[in-house]
From TrEMBL:
Pfam families: p450. This is Cytochrome P450. It comes from Rhynchospora breviuscula. Coiled coil: none annotated. InterPro entries: Cyt_P450 (IPR001128), Cyt_P450_CS (IPR017972), Cyt_P450_E_grp-I (IPR002401), Cyt_P450_sf (IPR036396). One of its GO terms (molecular function) is monooxygenase activity. Its cofactor is heme. Keywords: Heme, Iron, Metal-binding, Monooxygenase, Oxidoreductase. Heme binds at residue 319. GO terms for biological process: lipid metabolic process. The keyword Heme applies. Belongs to the cytochrome P450 family.
């Protein structure tokens, strides 16, 4: 039988690694760790429920700020008051976090617990999407002779209302939660960094004075000229990526470029949050909010490889709405900061809620003061 060293020189990488029983053992250990973590999460949720009812005082884990519920999702009762869209996001994330992998399927079949809430919330979101499709159908799918994205999907042979509904829902979820989350963290960071705020305002003034802008909003060209604002938003998403973890499922057995074997059906997760705070990628000042790191010597925005900055994912399945997201976020940020001074009323660094998007716990209460000039 060939030893693993012999195989390393003779066999293909895939055969070599598949034959390695140590890798299998490692993944069995990982599976066990994941199972224990999921089980602990359930205990943590149970413990915090008892605390809320006054039946238990804080446990050692709470005192050390190690609530597993904070890291891996919300307990159900917190979700009950959330909007249908947030419920959908949180409850679908929770499917991956329960102690038993397929428990959610049973709950779905029996229509109980979190799956019952998910079904209800989803029917509201679906109803909203169907309203959009039907109102567009009534107007005719062509908009003033120009086709929009929905018309294009509708013109696909075999398209039906359910398919269009899922596409609209997908765009609503992909495009709304991400930009709103990104802006929440951006406004918090800017409100705590007066020097960055001043530079953004100077840039807005400069763009206003260099052109005759008659509207209160900014055109595509005006926004394109705002390099510092672009850098500040990009830097804010480095520290607080709206999609902090992204998971893909492996279709066939494969080997990563570094030689790691990935089996069919396995999940692979990367963390844009961890990568964004990695000293190896961003240097010693990786924890600082420094928009300047994105500017060249002429003050022009210099992009980074998406494989180092995977906030919008990388490769063929990269975010389709990236450019649109930047336009929306820059436009809102420029209009808001030009008119108002925003002061955060949050004390200290806000806590996260990890759902599909990296939301700020409790939102961002602010004090808005109209700017004099
Ligand atoms: C700051 C804002 C945004 C961020 C950080 C973001 C991030 C991402 C990420 C990480 C993915 C990859 C998900 C995956 O496949 O695993 C993705 C995919 C996608 N995003 Fe965004 N996104 C943003 C805004 C938007 C907007 C505004 C739209 C459109 C309205 C949009 C539409 C999409 C679509 C359609 C995909 C699926 C692409 C595909 O699978 O080929 N996104 N986005």
């Amino acid at each position: 039988m060939a030893s693993s060293t012999q195989m390393a020189t003779s066999g293909s990488g895939r055969e070599r690694l598949r034959a390695s029983s140590s890798i299998k053992n490692r993944y069995e250990t990982l599976w066990l760790t994941r199972f224990i973590l999921r089980l602990l999460t359930v205990f943590c949720q149970f413990c915090s429920r008892l605390q809320r009812k006054g039946l238990r005082s804080s446990c050692k884990m709470c005192l050390r700020g190690l609530h597993l519920t904070t890291f891996v999702g919300w307990p159900l009762e917190k979700i009950q008051h959330a909007s249908p869209k947030k419920k959908c996001l949180d409850l679908s994330t929770a499917r991956f976090l329960g102690p038993f992998e397929n428990l959610w399927r049973i709950k779905k079949f029996l229509n109980i617990g979190s799956e019952k809430h998910l079904k209800k919330a989803l029917s509201i979101v679906h109803g909203y999407s169907i309203k959009i499709i039907r109102s567009r159908m009534l107007k005719g799918m062509e908009l003033d002779g120009r086709e929009d994205l929905l018309s294009r999907f509708a013109s696909i042979k075999d398209s039906n209302e359910d398919m269009l509904r899922d596409i609209v829902t997908n765009f609503l979820l992909a495009g709304r939660e991400t930009t709103s989350t990104a802006l929440t963290w951006f406004f918090w960071l800017v409100s705590t960094s007066p020097d960055v705020e001043k530079k953004i305002l100077d840039e807005i003034k400069c763009v206003r004075s260099s052109k005759v802008i008659t509207t209160e909003t900014f055109s595509f060209d005006d926004l394109r000229d705002m390099n510092y604002l672009h850098a500040a938003i990009t830097e804010s998403m480095r520290l607080y990526p709206p999609v902090p973890l992204d998971t893909v499922s492996c279709k066939e057995d494969d080997v990563m470029p570094d030689g790691t074997f990935v089996g069919k059906g396995w999940f692979v997760t990367y963390s844009a949050y961890v990568m964004g705070r990695s000293e190896d990628i961003w240097g010693k000042d990786c924890m600082e909010f420094k928009p300047e790191r994105w500017l060249d010597e002429n003050g022009v925005f210099k992009p980074e490889s998406p494989f180092r900055y995977p906030v919008f994912h990388a490769g063929p399945r990269m975010c389709l709405g990236k450019e649109m997201a930047y336009i929306q976020m820059k436009s809102i940020a420029a209009c808001m900061l030009e008119r108002f001074q925003i002061r955060s009323l949050k004390e200290g660094t806000p806590e996260h809620i990890l759902s599909l998007a990296l939301r700020m716990k409790g939102g961002l209460p602010v004090l808005l003061s109209k700017r004099e000039d």
